[in-house]
Amino acid sequence: MGEKALPAVYKKYICSFPECSASYNKTWKLQAHLCKHTGERPFPCTVEGCGKGFVTLFHLTRHTMTHTGEKPCKCEAPDCDLSFTTMGNMRRHHQRAHLSPSLIYMCYFADCGKTFKKHNQLKIHQYIHTNQHPYKCTNEGCDKSFSSPSRLKRHEKVHAGYPCQKDSTCPFVGKTWTEYMKHVATIHSEPAICDVCNRTFKKKTHLKDHKKTHEERIVYRCPREDCDRTYTKKFALQSHILSFHEELRPFACEHLGCGKTFTMKQSLDRHANTHDPEKKKMKKPRPKRSLASRLSGYKPKKSTKTSKSVSDVGNLPLCDPLDPAKAMQNLSIK
After folding, report:
1. CA–CA separation, 241 vs 227, rounded Å?
2. Quick check: 188 and 172 in contact, CB under 8 A?
3. I need a labelling partner for 183 at 20 to 30 A (CA). Which of 18, 52, 290, 309 fits?
4. Cβ–Cβ < 8 Å for 106, 115
């Protein structure tokens, strides 16, 4: 940051690790560097639930401001009220936003031309062209390296895993986020109970859908005189008025030899699927029901076949408005 490089003779504090030629002119710089080899973080954050650690007291002090919300470095521009945690962040903002607002960094590789607002973003991007992976994993026995810090951070979670946060006594550590979520769903899932009817569900989404049955449904009543028809959807009410009262069917099927007409365009779109052979194959045929079951309102189970014998008719629950004798008359007995 503007300091001139010191001669090698002044850098008398040399790293003792093999294959490392780093040297420094101050003790604290060497101590901070050694933490990269040992993985030690001598300055931990004391905020409950944080768990982060740092190699220098300066880094810890700067991190603490993220918990307190303190931003002591105000922008020097007269019409700017932004503040920052460090002077370096403030000066970079001042240079980029006020002194050179149009400054961009362009990738100079052929056929690329991508631009970035920050030089560091350009630097990380260019590792893609050079196939460099300078960010190496520090875990023992892992030789993987990556082209950006974000990818390295995401990879390090593989080594750290996902410990269970639902119960402090639970020893589970998931290798992936999916594995952790499955563990929570099977071991620590709480039953979802409806507060109206006390019905239980496996998932909260199922409970949310169920609660809609207890809510008052909006009913749309037909505004025409002497018509007491009601609907739960505006589309159904509009279709009723156009077809029943207005007798309008302006949307006609243009398929050759069809000639069917509809009151709503959505109905015409659904009907068009009947002329598409591919969609026709995908459509499952509806199971046929006997005439007696349709008249009585009885719906047989899918696993059992509806019998058309006379002995079964006596067991069918008949609806009040229908005459059982008429149902027997229309029933074809084999």
Report:
1. 10
2. no
3. 52
4. yes
